Protein 1
Amino acid sequence: MKNINFDHKVVEMKNITKKFGNFTANDNINLTVHKGEIHALLGENGAGKSTLMNILYGLYQPTMGEIYINGEKTNITDPNVAIKKGIGMVHQHFMLVEPFTVAENIVLGMEPTSTLGTMNMKKAVKNVEDISKQYGLHVKPNEKIQDISVGMQQRVEILKALYRGADTLILDEPTAVLTPQEIKELIQIMRNLTTQGKTIIIITHKLKEIKEAADYCTIIRRGKHVDTVEVKSTTEDELASKMVGREVSFKVEKEQKQRGDVGLKIENLVVKDNRGIDAVRGLSLEVHVGEILGVAGVDGNGQTELIEALTGLRSITSGKVTVNGNDVTNKTPKEIFQNKIASIPEDRQKRGLVLDYTIAENMVLENYGEQPFSKNGILNKLEINKFAKDLIEKFDVRPNDETIKTRALSGGNQQKVIIAREVTNDPDILIAAQPTRGLDVGAIEFVHKSLVRQRDNDKAVLLVSLELDEVMNVSDRIAVIYEGKIVGIVDAKDADEKSLGLMMAGGGSQQ
Ligand SMILES: Nc1ncnc2c1ncn2[C@@H]1O[C@H](COP(=O)(O)OP(=O)(O)OP(=O)(O)O)[C@@H](O)[C@H]1O
Ligand SMILES: [Mg+2]
């Protein structure tokens, strides 16, 4: 706590209220952040965290309330004002220009110029290198954004804010897309930043990270401020129950169950990645009905390509996929859907939803052409809305309004819409890729229960997740993927983190 200057309030948000129409996203919230502090914002999906930070960054105007920056009342009318006042923000979804280099992205809009007024790229690269070194970010200025990992892209976003003179950095769910190793590195970077006088506000759902990295934590529930606590004198359980207003179970309850026949069969599958290199290299796997088979592995070992191949989004070079004996190799997504395979995709914004469609429209995305949703080619809006209302109720989607666009939903609520749709189609096979990424603990509990319910109803569930805890908790059997192949399968009750970790790193299954 040595870095915090309690006499210096860098940010004070007082009685902030934000309404969207009749809906109150922030209800009289207070937030004080001191210089040098790492302050976590915790709350359920849709609690209003991103909204509050978008207000601080000038993207939204509060309906009521005041903001003080360094003790001075400030009217943050747009992000330019925020930046001038030393506030930077890295969003939940990055906003980089993919074909541009790291340095070009960082200096975009404020390029250093040479005497002739043309852009001085050499100087830009040097500037970027200097800041990168100062805070231990280690980016390579000349690489293109499209060629670097998500973790690196995030560092570029951080550098972009620092380059614009940010003293206070807002990080909106920075770890949701990172691997465990990248998370460790990010925490180290945050520490470097605060020892050099920067202040950080971080939104995260991961209580472990809050315990590890944050000094203070402010909890928001349904738009209201619940508490601000000193992190070292609180527990993960306390944080969780403050956040959802009830006790949360971190353990997945499931009964012993005899698995049935093979539902999904994958034989010698070979699939290429975007660069044309084999990412899945002769993978074989059988998922039985009545079981959850979890695939554990380090990111980038062919998981994404496997899922895309199984759901018809990527072509299969060789090998065979069958569902209940029917060949579905290289079928279109529609044919695969008709073969009763449902999927919860990894990237909910690109693959799972049409963001400019309403919740109701997204709920029937795959079967709007069928009865009762349409008849003789004419949509029956009444039936669609009734169906959507029912699912919103059952899956606790907030806000409870089928007519709003899914773009306006919080990340967790977008995920609930997809799960509601996919599970309700009553599939034989459910493929779930990173199904709880970015979700709060209450929503995670819900998703896990939904997966177990599918299994109990004799469906075959394939779970692919980078969260080892999740795979170990939810699965009946665990398959480890490494370099595009399954290198070992263990019963979940015999699995331990250490030996799985070893296999995930290519260490074999013997020890
Ligand atoms: N532009 C908007 N128009 C209408 N409603 C909105 C808008 N932005 C946010 N909301 C609503 O305000 C509520 C709070 O959303 P917000 O994005 O702040 O949640 P969050 O706490 O960041 O959730 P998550 O953890 O899922 O990201 C949500 O119910 C959301 O649907
Ligand atoms: Mg958010």
Protein 2
Amino acid sequence: MFPDPILRKKCRVVRRVDMDKARELASDMIETMDGAGGVGLAANQVGALQRVVTLHIPGDDEAIVLINPEIRDTEGEREIVEGCLSFPGYEGMVKRSITVKARWLDENGSKMKITTDELIAQALEHEVDHLNGILYTDHLLAHEKLVAAGTYMEDDEPHMHDVELEVHADHSDEGEEPEESDIEVVHSTIKFSDLYSESAVDQMRYDLRREGFLAEESESVASEHSHSHTHTHDHVESDDPHLDGGVLLDPEHKH
Ligand SMILES: [Zn+2]
């Protein structure tokens, strides 16, 4: 998550001998990306400095793995709304190419290439930027700042989806064919929406504003602040008018 310094690091090229490791990393990344409802993920977003990207274009059955992806050529310019899993809850208007030519190795080491537009082009530029330590906030249009996710598009889906899991636990003895009674089915929900604590979100808002990525106190932010302030105040009230949360509130003793 922003502002973790690893997001500003350049990822290393995956060598042939490290393809197995890259494959393993990619499968973890697909889980994380799909779990968070993301379109793309770069390895440094999950703490690995490898040139590995995963993409899952909405509507496609499968996610794809891109090892050592390179943008070969771009054409045209467009302004488009973008978000990033490293900045949960925000989106911004950026400038991207219309057409993108890219090449990479797939998880088997086969050479792949594509000339594409629309969302895939945008995602390719976004993710290859990540591998070079570049964030989409670097491309924000001069007059634009980040805004709360969903501001630009009314039908925008929430960035964090909860994931329903059905786990089949096999309790049969090793080597024996499991019977139906040996299989325990456990349902669980991963609440990705709970992954980021309120304090982490507050911290990110502070860091974003300090970097100038965020507009000055917007209305919604301002009202949230005054709300939490009121809450804090209620919390420390005391029957003794001189005591407020253990602090003596005597005007004569104020420094
Ligand atoms: Zn991103």
Protein 3
Amino acid sequence: MFWIYVIIIATLLIALVELYIFISAGEYMWCIIHNQIPFVASSKYLRRAVVTEIQRHFPHATSVVDIGSGYGGLARHIAKNCDMTVVALENMPFTIMIARIMNFITRSRVKIIKCDAFEYLKSSPHFNIGVAYLGPNVNPRLKEYTKQFDVIITLDVPIEKLKPTRVIDVGHGCTHYGRHKFPHKLFVYDFTK
Ligand SMILES: C[S@@+](CC[C@H](N)C(=O)[O-])C[C@H]1O[C@@H](n2cnc3c(N)ncnc32)[C@H](O)[C@@H]1O
């Protein structure tokens, strides 16, 4: 009897993992087809660098939004280390479900909003800081939203034709977009200066 339970539980777990792989691959393909950057989690080096940047240069900021938050790892890392309202914007349903489960498990206070980030930002409240790990195809869109923020921090890729206030060389790792390799850097655009 014991072994029957073990086999049933193992079969269920394998089915769950396969379902996870199947649905996340489906969302990934959807993103590629619709020219949207798919979910790829930021590295621990990037997350640490973002928190250090916020703590060092923007200690009085009260709100931050992750524009395209994926499973919410970066947003939760900021919420854990910085005393401010943290909002995470994401539009892929399965990715949001995982982000909500992770929020529940870690008891995170990150507020996850299911939306197209760019539609949301058209009429959103003002945020002190926006962080974006969106890549070279999507980053140019951020230029239309500079009034929504005091500061925008982009990960690895600059905003085309916008001069950053600072560039932080993270020192470890890189992100590949197609055949191009982008070493881990933060591009900080401080619009209050
Ligand atoms: C490279 S991942 C970054 C995840 C997270 N910010 C991190 O650093 O770990 C980009 C995420 O942005 C989401 N995304 C891309 N365009 C979006 C849009 N217009 N609205 C909402 N989410 C978007 C994708 O679904 C994906 O989960």
Protein 4
Amino acid sequence: MSMPTMPRRREILHASAAGLAVFVAGCASVPTGAKPRVVVVGGGWGGLGAVRGLLEGGHVAVTMVEPNEAFMSCPLSAHYIAGFQPASDFQRSYQKVDQLGVKRVRERVLEIDRVKAQVITATQRLSYDYLVLSPGVDYMEESIPGYAEARAQLPVGFRAFEQMAVRKQVDEFLVNGGNFVIGTPKPPYRCPPAPYERAFLIAEQMQQRGTKGKLILVDANPNPMPPPIAKPILNAMKQLYRDQIEYMPSVDIQSINMGTRKLATTAGEVPFTHANMILPMRAPDLIRQAGLGERWASVKLPSFQSRADERIFVIGDSQGSPLPKSGHVAFGSGQQVAEAIVARILGQSAPTTQEAAELPMGICWASVTHKEAININVRGSVLPGEAPKLRLTVDEQHNARSGAAAVSWGEGMWKAMLG
Ligand SMILES: Cc1cc2nc3c(=O)[nH]c(=O)nc-3n(C[C@H](O)[C@H](O)[C@H](O)COP(=O)(O)OP(=O)(O)OC[C@H]3O[C@@H](n4cnc5c(N)ncnc54)[C@H](O)[C@@H]3O)c2cc1C
């Protein structure tokens, strides 16, 4: 398999002219006069891809709405959670993006008024000509009875800055020992290999620190996800962590009792001292409230244009296409959408075509030790009116080369977003 190097813009984007043409054909025109206004909701992987692309050339007035004061990466953050690296390695400031000319609003969007073409925060109404939504995921807390009451003690940690609460659990476990349970839902959820990666790095620390106890992976799936990665993940589990990890496949968690510290599961009761419940996920409520979809936003491919509103684009994990929920895909879809919006504004729409369009590619990493990883590459294409075709390539075995490539990939992506 060819190894990914530092991502360059075209490589991240990986969208053909055909894709662009399919997109721009359906857009509403923008009023002349002042610069067209594009509002981007979310300053994570997708939102930053869009913002960076939209700022190029200075044709657009770009507003980014993001409640966090800084960025924190979920990719590679297992190295922080398991105690191998400090949190600061995965955090970046928005300062350089500010300097490029974005208007940054540090608030949460509460509502989208599609009739007036405005997004509403606690203090502002922001008008848009085009709206790009990349608000990430919400957790379906109601899917496990007892979870909502236990939220503070059982953080999921699959969103920026939530990792600190999981780290606290891990630190306690590594010192005191016990049963650390990681619950894994059925896809679609953000970064399917991430629960196994988290388990591996915690198990590596158990070995290094001589922690007494077990890490129990309660998996709703029959095998580690996504399916092409199952073999190298199971091999790593057997080869490296036989004494630390107990794997329970095809087991659903039915409820949580924090009083007795027991999970009710389809395989009986599982006692725990610490737990990291990775819940089923969906797009944030904003998407449903705006009538853009149910569990996920409904979009057309390759354009990521909402099926409900031609002026709205939903990218990243909130959109419901079969593309993997990956930061690389999110950033690439943001860049693609930005390029197409600018092309439209400049009146550069290409003729529509029946050619297959390449979709933004995905790169994921499953760290197996703090030095070794398994690499997964996803490439996709779509023919007009047909379901997208995805091709996955996966390392057969964890290796140090992918471990090092993951680190340079992360640095390259954070630079492309925030440098
Ligand atoms: C442990 C882990 C490991 C991962 N590893 C990889 C990997 O190796 N490779 C990879 O490509 N991907 C990986 N991912 C997946 C990657 O993190 C996500 O796919 C990516 O973050 C999705 O980008 P996004 O823009 O959709 O969401 P996010 O990056 O989560 O950004 C969403 C942003 O929207 C903001 N927001 C939410 N609601 C609102 C609102 N109402 N108003 C304003 N702002 C709002 C949030 O504050 C957030 O900053 C991993 C994820 C996890 C959890």
